[in-house]
Amino acid sequence: MKTNSPSVALFIPCYVDQFYPQVGIATLELLEKLGCQVTYPSGQTCCGQPLANAGYARDTVGTARHFIETFNDYDYVVCPSGSCTLHVKEHFPTIAGLEKEQEALEHKIYELIEFITDVLKIEKLEGKFPHRVGFHSSCHGQRGLHLSSGSELNQPPYNKARKLLENLAGLEWVELSRTDECCGFGGTFAVTEEALSIQMGKDRLADHLEHKTEILTGGDMSCIMHLQGIATRSKQELKFLHLAEILNQALS
Amino acid sequence: MTHPENAAEFLKDSQKSKWHDETLWFVRDKRDKVSKGIPEWEQLRELASGIKDNVLANLANYLEEFERNTTKNGIIVHWAADSEEHNRLVLEILQQQNCTAVVKSKSILTEECHLNPYLEKHGVEVVDTDLGERIVQFLNQPPSHIVLPAIHLKKGEISELFHEKLHTEKGNEDPAYLTQAARVHLREKFFAAKVAITGVNFGIAETGEFVVCTNEGNADMGVHLAQVHIACMGIEKILPRRKDLGVFLRLLARSATGQPITNYNSHFRSPSTGKEIHIILVDNGRTAQLAREKFRNSLKCIRCGACMNTCPIYRRSGGFSYNSTVPGPIGSILSPGLDLKKHSSLPFASTLCGSCTDVCPVKINIHEQLYEWRQEVTKTQGEFAKGLSMKLANGIFKSPLAYKISGSLMRNAVKSLPNSLIYHPLNTWGKNRNLPDPPKESFQQWYRKNRS
Ligand code: SF4
């Protein structure tokens, strides 16, 4: 490991912590392989997004304050979720007395992939992953954090995750019909608009199946949990992995 | 009925809802392709957004300038504070003309004011002359989309309807044949109408002219045959200068249908000799919206419908599921301003995916306003929020998926997460989805064992 490398704090979203510890582990190991000095600050909880998106942002002041304090002493905060990262950056309520710390946090928190490409400035990763991989573009990662170009905008196409994945030996990138349509998770939407949520998920899966995706991946485990939930219920032969898991496996 | 209930109903006919999704996606895709042919597309959007911001910031001045110049041009200007006043003004003009049959083209505003039933109640026959509008009028339905009002109907349904109403051949679904039949039918109505009503896409303050954009040319047809033209215009439709039109006409057609230009961009400036033009400037909640800082810029909307075509919810739930004149994402941020209680489920009819915001030609931050309306709805506990908090309290809290939503977790920022939440197989999440298999330990536990 490099000496005097910046200190990186891992922020593991609560549902990843509880349901997908392997994604947390992969994130940690991957960052370490890339030479980072990583700590997981204990005592971290949740970013408050589910409550805020349900219309109760005013009840997330305590959560936000706790979050800012927990991650204050690190150079970077890295999170394997575009959605939670975006929430911290854009939707935290302003916390009285911590304005400076809050502003600093907004600038030092990164989603995992953008941390690799934009902060560590890694252009390509050497490794192999001989599989057909279909990428699910999470809306908050794409339209919120601009991790890839959106089909709505007139801009040169780019995709930070694709850049890293495509360089892996043997990996086949799956071209989809609708490259960035929402999967229908949407937090509370998944339960308040259950019928729509399911239909949207089924439509995304159909696109992947039609184009022979073997492993469906993405940067947000919440989308994947939803898609995987529908796929397993309907006994579809798809595998699901977080980007961190693919990259970490490829590099070992 | 709330949006989720309507959406679930719409999805029951899976073939039709799939067709609806694909039809609108086709329009969105066409818009993508044609917009990418304009290298300065994003600058155009920026410019349009800036022009509209300026209009909203100086609305009173521009409106007065518009009134001065239209009056100078010989147009009669009326002001309506709300839909009742608007409807009354229209009726008064009709009565002065002893007119009992009017033709109408391109006006969502008159839909918003429910003008048709009002006039019919007062003995006036109203004929919507645009094909899609006429179709839904035959069915006694409101439009389901602001640009494609009959998009919820398939060819076969229209063929059947025309067979019944216009005596076309049974089973003939040829669009050209059906359109021709509607034309012949409408021609009679055009000849008979003394007064024609149109909407307004853009009112130009500098010149006192206004522009109506149509693909079928019915606004012109109606207006030129009639003695009197009544133009109904929302007060936010102002543009400062004629040259601003260049920006908006390029954006409007491409965003709406993927056409490079609308077929007829008709400019009206002064009445021909012996004829009259009336403009009714309508507020109907717009100044109230203007006063709401977070929601003000929803008034920049040029009603292109692109946010509907792109919306994964709209495409799969149909326009009627919103229960408001303007459906889809923009409707979901406008309607709560008119009646928060009635429309309380609309801000939640979204995953906040943000596609609407990126597609919008005037850069309205639609998905952020949906988020903000949610905060408002829960404050006043609209009908939907009550149901929502019940759901949060009952069903969702008990599922491991949603333990993270727990209020105590949020408020007290507890140090460790509850591990023993019970999975109810019958809760909403689990109806059509499995939950991940619970791992033997959480990441936190793993970390404690392996790294500290
Ligand atoms: S909000 Fe934007 S995209 Fe939607 S109809 Fe209005 S102008 Fe078009």
Could you characterize what this model shows?
The complex is a heterodimer of chains A (252) and B (452). Chain A is built from 13 helices and 8 strands. Chain A has helices at residues 14-19, 21-33, 49-56, 61-70, 82-91, 99-108, 112-119, 139-144, 160-166, 189-192, 194-210, 221-233, 243-250; strands at residues 7-10, 37-39, 76-79, 109-111, 132-136, 172-173, 215-218, 239-242. In chain B, helix 16 (328-338) packs parallel to helix 18. The relative contact order of chain B is 0.13. The model of chain B is unreliable at 393-426 (pLDDT under 50). Chains A and B meet through helix 1, helix 2, helix 3, helix 4 and helix 8 of A and helix 1, helix 2, helix 15, helix 17 and helix 18 of B. Iron/sulfur cluster binds at residues 255, 301-307, 330, 359-362, 364, 366 of chain B.
Number of structural units classed as domains of chain A: 2
Helix content, binned percent of chain B: 40-55%
CATH superfamily of the largest domain in chain B: NagB/RpiA/CoA transferase-like
Distance between the termini of chain A: 16 Å
CATH topology of the largest domain in chain A: Rossmann fold
Structural topology:
The complex is a heterodimer of chains A (252) and B (452).
Chain A: E1 7-10, H1 14-19, H2 21-33, E2 37-39, H3 49-56, H4 61-70, E3 76-79, H5 82-91, H6 99-108, E4 109-111, H7 112-119, E5 132-136, H8 139-144, H9 160-166, E6 172-173, H10 189-192, H11 194-210, E7 215-218, H12 221-233, E8 239-242, H13 243-250
Parallel strand pairs in A: 1-2, 1-3, 3-4, 5-6, 5-7, 7-8
Helix pairs in contact in A: 2-13, 11-12
Chain B: H1 3-12, H2 14-36, H3 41-57, H4 59-72, E1 76-80, H5 83-96, E2 101-105, H6 108-112, H7 115-121, E3 125-128, H8 131-138, H9 155-166, H10 175-192, E4 195-199, E5 202-204, E6 209-214, H11 218-225, E7 228-234, E8 238-239, H12 245-257, E9 264-268, E10 276-282, H13 286-291, H14 306-310, H15 312-317, H16 328-338, H17 355-359, H18 366-380, H19 383-398, H20 407-412, H21 443-451
Helix pairs in contact in B: 2-12, 9-10, 16-18
